[in-house]
């Protein structure tokens, strides 16, 4: 049940990033796996970002904030690597 709630929150987070135009494409989080306390794998149904590893301390930071930071950092890094003027395939 915890993983189901984390999946819902991960999806809410990527939806917010998409709505804010922070990420250049929509993502769908279909599963979150708890590997150990504070270590999670978020699975996406997208070949560009199939999964991300998210680490956070629940006492210091929310899971939504941790997911947001990892998605922003990862998608931003890949977007910059594509070069100026190029975009991700949608």
Helix-strand string: HEEEH
Task: Give the spatial strand order of the biggest sheet.
Answer: 1-2-3
Give the low-pLDDT segments: none
Structural class by secondary-structure content: alpha+beta
| Residues in β-strands, percent | 15-25%
**Computed CA radius of gyration, to the nearest angstrom:** 13 Å
Question: Would you write up a description of this structure?
Answer:
This protein is α+β, with helices and mostly antiparallel strands and 90 residues long. It has 2 helices and 3 strands; from the N terminus they run αβββα. β1 (29-36) and β2 (39-44) form a beta hairpin. The chain starts with a helix and ends in an 8-residue tail after the last helix.
List keywords for this structure.
3-stranded antiparallel β-sheet, globular, 90 residues, alpha+beta
In short:
The chain is α+β, with helices and mostly antiparallel strands.
List the helices and strands and how they pair.
Blueprint: H1 2-19, E1 29-36, E2 39-44, E3 51-55, H2 63-82
Antiparallel strand pairs: 1-2, 2-3
Helix pairs in contact: 1-2
